[in-house]
Amino acid sequence: MKALAWLLLCAVLLGGCGVQTQTADGKRVKIGIMLSDVGLGDQSFSDAAFLGLSKARDELNIQFDYREISETGDYEKGLVELVKQDNDLVVGLGFMVQESLEKVAKMYPEQAFVLIDSVSDVPNVVSLTFKEEEGSFLIGALAGLKTKSNKLGFIGGMDAPVIHKFGAGFKQGVQTVNPQAQIVEQIAGDFGSAEKGASIAAAMIQSGVDVLYPAAGLTGVGALKEAEKQGKLAFGVDSDQFFVAEKAVVSSMMKHIDMAIYLIAETLVKDGKLSAKQMELGLQEDGVGLAEVRVAALSDKEKERLASLKQDIISGKIRVNKK
């Protein structure tokens, strides 16, 4: 299944996969990336993107550089610096980069850009988004099967469409397997505060929540650790966050940002450009999915239920809410 999913993803981006270590003119491909607001060490979004570029460097012989807002002070400055380095492609990671990236893209119309997690109409910007709602549906179904109090909590980092996709899919998944369950939601207003995440999680647990699903970057890490501290279950996002809180994290909603960025690099190496204007990756393309299930054992019946729900989403029998 993994091999088939990889071929499907290749078809979305390339129309076929192939690898060479340099472009037609003999130059190494250069990619610059403006990381999301927390930057490296978020144990989530930025770290996964960096992993994908590191893999492309090692296996495809590309060059890459990156900027963090903690160094540049704002997204625009970092993006301009990357453009001036003559990168073949400049990537903006996360919806919060969009306004600055579009401004810089209009300033440099000959430069190719990729915006991850939002959609842009600017001609020289390729948009790459994920169907977070599909993976979150499966997390919700798993959470709905494992809750004992029938009260679950969702913590979002910011009030933004991509975060609402996480929440909507989670709620639908919970209610599909456990209609009696109640979902408590809170927007933290911050992706970078582990302390705030822990505080929100503690309040939810005090109210009776026994399963937490934070989509909130480093703020979510704080929530995961608080769940572990209080002996509750939790689910990670973007990358496998089991090692953040090994006694609490049952699974994680994987956004294969590393794989997608690697494939973008491979496209540039092979073709010298990106042909698609917009790409959206879900369960069918293996753009999202579940990490290994740990901590809470699944019965054979529960495993079959999750597998069936996944296939129903892929086939279109289940349409997952985005908001």
From TrEMBL:
Bilayer disposition of the protein: Lipid-anchor
A Pfam family hit: Bmp
Keyword ATP-binding set for record: no
Subcellular location: Cell membrane
Cellular component terms per the entry's GO annotation: plasma membrane
Family according to the record: Belongs to the BMP lipoprotein family.
PANTHER family noted in UniProt: ABC TRANSPORTER GUANOSINE-BINDING PROTEIN NUPN (PTHR34296:SF2), TRANSCRIPTIONAL ACTIVATOR PROTEIN MED (PTHR34296)
Protein name stated in the entry: BMP family ABC transporter substrate-binding protein
Organism: Paenibacillus ginsengarvi
